[in-house]
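As the work plan foresaw, our protein records have gained a structure token line. A representative record is set out beneath this paragraph:
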Amino acid sequence: VYGDPNQWTVIFYANQDRFSDDGSLISPGVKVRLPCIGRSLSAPANRAAQTPSPTAPAQSAPQPTANSQTDQPGSSADSAGSSGFLISSMLRRLQLLTADGYPPFTGRSLPSGGMMTELLTKSMSLVKGEADGRFDYSISWINDWAAHLNPLLISRAFDVGFPYSKPDCDRPTSLDRVGRLKCERFFFSDPLYEVATLLYARKDSNIRKLDTADLQGKTICRPLGWSVHELEANGRNWLRDRVVVVVRPPSFDACFQMLADGRVDSVAADELTARSSIAMVGLQDQVEPLNVPLSFSTLHVMVTRTHPHARTILYYTNEALRRLKATREYDQIVDKHLSNFWSSLKRPPSAAFANQPAASNAPRARSAVESGPASPSSSPDAAPGATDTDGDQTAQY
């Protein structure tokens, strides 16, 4: 359909509610949506009738810790009607936290602040519209992903952060301290979206598959503040067994420039963010992904378990998201951002990267040989208490 088998993820992203639970299988008879990419979209008026809506029931929000004071919708809340939100009388304002550098999901230079930002803005606007002046919200941008979980969210300087992926909290022994921190100290919303993370290498590289022998002694780039659990997934144990060295520059753009310069052997990145960085630095003809993903991850809103209004926040988020999906407005927002994203890849590379070494205005890349399982996420995740110190330091995460 698209003339390029590498664009299989367009179909994957547009049909996440129709595939199997593990996100990898299409059953016979399933009808899939094939979005038009690279041009404006206008949804037909009868689209909801043509396309089956998600059938999964809304999940109940998890309960906050027993020792936290909670705001229980329905007990200390005013009903907005049987089909409306239950508006809390205690939670009057919600402060959401995100950062730049995660296209097409978040970024102030992106339309509406990115796909996740628009989904959350639309969701909170639904609540605000029914609250009759009793609820408002704001979105803040702090471009230090490593500081978001700790201290900004744990200290409740902000109420919620987005977008973050959820670790496998049912297997705590496989998690590093960041993964355990997320499972032990935070609640997660229902999934907002799902992303595929892949390993990228130069086209002349001898790395051709996700094989320990191919990766032995290789360097993998992953920006500071982004976790690397994919390197441990599916029994790979590349970090625990010191198969690879992880290099941590400030951004994915820097990672791909280092890959082009031969300073690292590969980059682990979610597919859409990688395509954006590859286009930004003009490496489309030099870099390609391995054809088997490292992992699939779902993106979420996160709120600390000690937040006194954690249950209400999750109720607002999950119920608003359910409404967006039921009316197909969710699909329209996703389609719009994906169309803009694919169009943006056709633009010329940024002149700011022409003939410039990677991270030329930043400390030298930091490397970390992991001694245990890494943090589980393909979205930005904080290393507890992390600080961006001198670039010559070898960091343990």
In short: The CA atoms of residues 230 and 244 lie 13 Å apart. Residues 39-82, 350-379, 382-397 have pLDDT under 50 and may be disordered.
